[in-house]
Specification:
Order of helices and strands: EHHEHEHEHEEEHEHEEHHHHEHEEHH
CATH topology of the largest domain: Aspartate Aminotransferase, domain 2
Distance between the termini: 41 Å
Shape: globular
Number of helices: 14
Number of strands: 13
Bound molecules: pyridoxal-5'-phosphate
Helix content: 40-55%
Strand order of the largest sheet: 2-10-9-8-5-3-4
CATH superfamily of the largest domain: Type I PLP-dependent aspartate aminotransferase-like (Major domain)
CATH class of the largest domain: Alpha Beta
CATH architecture of the largest domain: 3-Layer(aba) Sandwich
Structural class: alpha/beta
């Protein structure tokens, strides 16, 4: 028998309470019972997004939410500024191109955050820009972009700020209304501790005005239709009923924890992961602006990361994420998003230590774990 652990930054582990909720018999979605359930999760999502706006629920993976954001706010020929600092920034570029937008691409070295000044300069050079598209947390490189400061540039202008918050909302403070984010998107399988299949999108009044004006063709992702129905606590098409049932339980758990503790937990786990990696002599991929979702770590020269990950998954039972594109085989990403606690960090670090030893590295077993424990211990109360 091999006991398995899913320690990737999406999909993340689903708590047993949530699995149980999702196994309840289906109720029909055109009923008062469903509308009552839906109204409760809508309210919970507003709390999570820190917004008074409607948070629309779509049956799609996170990318569906990203596509809906572009299709509903930008017309063909519009200019958009896209921060591309990894795989998901690249996805904004591709979606924008698919919808005929003129893309001003701000390429950021992987592992780095965009400089606010670069965005300010691009806005100055491109008057009439329809939107700035960015990730809050670029999961592929484990870097966090300065969304609050960028929102200060677009707030009060005609340019929208469209934020992919897929590994930020529910992991780090991303207050939509307070910061002035115009469109905020997230998905179900990261901080929200659910299986993949739901996307969430909220727009403020400035963005909704643009939804009415844009000439882009839309059907399934027509947010005008969706908002009309969701204001009545139902959806335009058949919702993912079981996932919404699970979401109800997730939101109950998150509210019980509270936003402050939720963010503090993610920050502490992230700090422990970074301390452990550095104690092992490994270099962080995003040291200056690290994400609370996952910690990217360079592997020592000569270690084949693809083989290492395969060994950890197939032999040790621990699924840890690697890198994509030019980082494939060169990094690992230690996840600490969603249903994650101290012992997930211990498991991941311990696995990495033992696997690196098996791959011929001079690793002092327990050294990373020790440094992680020093930080994780802060999360428990003193005795007495
Ligand atoms: C996971 C992720 C996505 C993609 O979501 P899918 O559910 O795979 O479509 C987009 N952006 C970020 C930042 C992500 O972490």
């Amino acid at each position: 028998m091999l006991k398995r652990y899913l320690l990737t930054p999406g999909p993340t582990e689903v708590p047993p309470e949530v699995l149980l909720r999702m196994s309840q018999p289906l109720i029909h979605h055109r009923t008062p019972q469903f509308e009552d359930l839906f109204a409760q999760v809508q309210e919970g999502l507003q709390w999570l997004f820190q917004t008074t706006q409607e948070v629309l629920i779509l049956a799609a993976s996170g990318t569906g939410g990203m596509e809906a954001a572009v299709a509903n706010t930008c017309s063909a020929g519009d200019t958009v500024i896209v921060v591309n600092g990894g795989k998901f920034g690249e996805r904004w570029v591709k979606i924008s191109q698919a919808f005929g937008l003129k893309v001003v691409e701000l390429k950021v070295e992987w592992g780095h955050a965009v400089a606010v000044e670069t965005v300010a300069q691009a806005l100055a050079n491109n008057p009439g820009t329809r939107a700035v598209l960015i990730q809050a947390s670029e999961t592929s490189t484990t870097a966090l972009h300065p969304v609050e400061q960028i929102a200060a540039l677009t707030r009060g202008t005609d340019t929208l700020l469209i934020v992919d918050g897929i590994t930020a909302v529910g992991a780090t403070d991303t207050p939509m209304d307070r910061w002035g984010i115009d469109v905020l998107v997230t998905g179900s399988q990261k901080a929200l501790m659910l299986p993949p299949g739901l996307a969430f999108i909220a727009l403020n009044d400035k963005a909704w005005k643009q939804v009415e004006r844009t000439t882009q063709p839309r059907y399934y992702f027509d947010l005008r239709r969706e908002r009309k129905e969701q204001l009545k606590h139902t959806t335009a098409y058949t919702p993912a009923i079981s996932l919404i049932n699970g979401l109800h339980e997730v939101l109950r758990m998150l509210r019980e924890e509270g936003l402050e503790h939720l963010f503090a937990r993610h920050a502490r786990l992230a700090r422990a992961a970074r301390a452990a990696a550095q104690a092992l002599g490994l270099t962080l991929l995003a040291p200056a602006s690290p994400s609370p979702a996952a910690t990217g770590v360079w592997l020592p020269q000569g270690v084949d990361g693809s083989k290492l990950l395969k060994y950890m998954r197939d032999r040790m039972g621990v699924d840890i994420a690697g890198g994509q594109d030019h980082l494939k085989g060169k990094i690992v990403r230690i996840s600490h998003i969603g249903y994650a606690g101290p012992f997930d960090i211990i498991t991941a670090i311990s696995t990495l230590e033992m696997a690196l030893r098996r791959f011929g590295q001079d690793i002092l077993l327990g050294r990373g774990v020790q440094h992680a424990e020093e930080i994780l211990l802060e999360g428990w109360p003193t005795v007495g």
